[in-house]
Amino acid sequence: MSRLTDVGAPDLREQAKSWVNNFILTTIVKLGKDYQYRQLILRTLRSIEGAFQEYQEGREFLSTYVDKRADISSYFHALRHFETSTLLAYHAFDTIRTMISKDLFAQNDGSPLQRLNRLQNITKHAHKEMGRGEVPKGSIVPIWLTNTGLECHDKTKLTFSEFAGLMADLTRLADIISQPPSQPRNNGTT
């Protein structure tokens, strides 16, 4: 925490949109009774919007911590929001994987998405790793913030730049799936 002196997380407010709102308004007319498709898309869009909201909240608390070093709780608020953002971002990718029935990364391939997966798994299962003594004694948390990104006890790192790139990927996906295609017409009749 003492080496954290910079807010390295880029501001992503301009990328975030109201994808859920757009999707709800357009699917009432366009998707008809394809409920499973609609459920998966809505889950994806909710996760993406949530990931952006949590990321921005984390960035704001990180800025407060960097500006006011005495406010230690701001660091932990920032960490919680970034952890939650990793969970939601990965869940969005995982739902997309379910929809297309294709793996998005290979196990331990070192890609940003694989490392995002690792970080969100550590967030989800931190209590188990702590209980097994897998988190080093000098660490009070299994994941921490640095000037450049997120790191964890097993040396997994995800830079804020890489995370922003993954969020940009989610932006493109959300733009596409929040505007589903129109239902085909039956020989020109409605």
What can you see in these coordinates?
- By secondary structure, this protein is mainly alpha-helical.
- The chain has one domain (19-177).
- It has 5 helices and 3 strands, in the order ααααβββα.
- It has a 3-stranded antiparallel sheet with strand order 1-2-3.
- A hairpin with a 3-residue loop joins strand 1 and strand 2.
- Helix 1 packs antiparallel against helix 2, helix 2 packs antiparallel against helix 5 (160-177) and helix 3 (72-100) packs across helix 4.
- The radius of gyration is 19 Å and the shape is globular.
- Mean pLDDT is 85; it is low at 183-190.
Topology at a glance:
Elements: H1 19-30, H2 35-67, H3 72-100, H4 112-131, E1 143-145, E2 149-152, E3 157-159, H5 160-177
Antiparallel strand pairs: 1-2, 2-3
Helix pairs in contact: 1-2, 2-3, 2-5, 3-4
Mean pLDDT: 85
Which sequence of strands runs across the widest sheet? 1-2-3
Describe the sheet with the most strands: 3 strands, antiparallel
Runs with pLDDT <50, length 5+? 183-190
Radius of gyration, Cα only, in angstroms?
Answer: 19 Å
- Terminal Cα separation, in Å? 62 Å
Strand content: 5-15%
Number of domains: 1
User: SSE order, as H and E?
Assistant: HHHHEEEH
The percentage helix is 55-70%
Please give the number of β-strands: 3
Mass-distribution shape: globular
Tally of contiguous helical segments: 5
Helix/sheet category: mainly alpha
